[in-house]
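Re: LLP structure - here you go.
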Amino acid sequence: MYNSSNISINEQGHLVFAGQDTVELAKQYGTPAYIMDEERIRERCRIYRSAMEEHFGEGSIPLFASKALSVKRIYEIMAEEGMGIDIVSSGELYTALKAGFDLSKAYFHGNNKTDFDIKYGIENGIGHFVCDNADELRAINEIAGANRIKQHILLRITPGIDPHTLAAINTGKVDSKFGAAIETGQADELVALALSLENIALDGYHCHIGSQIFEYEPFVDAATIMLTFMRDMKVKYGFEAQIMNLGGGMGVKYVNSDPEINYASNIAGIATLCKKICRDLGLNQPKFLLEPGRSIVADSGITLYTVGGVKEIPGFKNYVSIDGGMPDNPRYALYQSRYDAVVANKASLPADYECTLAGRCCESGDLIGEGMMLCKPVRGDTVAVFVTGAYNYAMASHYNRIPKAPIVMVNKNGSYIAVKRETFEDLCKNEI
Ligand code: LLP
């Protein structure tokens, strides 16, 4: 079974998550349901915040990449924990606003911000746009001018790093749809343009090299390239950046065979080297930002399902069908992402039954995982899938007209609904 400090088994042999009996939670809230450990989310925020403050210095903070989970309750928690946020759409901005989040601590990302997005951001006092390209930069300048403000921005720069190959290897990442590449000279041109525009206050740079990165070296490689670029721009234009945002992407232990990550020591490792690079390059140390998404919420979440049946195809495979699937978790269908699961009401029994965990949609690819090991379940049993807190609810759909599952928060005092289960009426509410 997936092992983590917030997971245990009680005397009835039930899976306990964050102190709560998951079989009872399934009874109380129905299935499928996302269950989230509020304390774990807060703990991760604190690890990032204190490690960044300690190792990078004051003013260096983590921004929660809210594309991983964008609901009001999460923004409230982020505000309480002193986090900044990364948002990528006006919808995320609206949700943060509804939660009372202070948007001066928000960074608006995306490779195609519409005029509406830019106006909406400016009207609501967005702290920074992370500007992707020259067209967008001019549009921000114009809209900021119309609003008689100088808009603070970062520029999204492509350092040309592939974190999944050997560290520091330059790859074809220059062809990313995001940002401007240093290698092609376009990043330099974007800086020149930003500095020439009247209503733009350029504060620094941003890069994001990818996700599920387990070591800290790729971040240091990216930082080396970015800080060298910062030095070059200082020499060429006399502009010294105040902010260096190194993006998100620290890995998460999705299954037991993945490594456990010590986020604080990763941050310490990145910070030590960044400070040294700044000294070597003769730069004043900028404020550093990181944008963790999944490493804040992924292992704070599990999904509970009810088994509908077991189908054995002799000589082939065994299917265990559950009452959710790709509408609540499309990540196996999209990326063949791996998950661990357990029969929550038989958690202490041996997991010796190999099966494919199949969703309920009319589509063969609707699976949560293949070759999974469970205790053989029967109809009515509860299955828990681990590490579903990031990019599950955020990517949920209504495929096959299935209402979205609720998000139930658990903490030491009990449990509460953060997002209600959708109803059939919700499915039709926009239909005339
Ligand atoms: N910052 C930027 C600019 C990003 O593009 C992303 C993720 C993050 C931060 C957060 O990365 P994280 O720490 O969560 O790895 N739907 C995919 C993930 C796409 C992520 C895109 N950008 C999935 O389910 O794995």
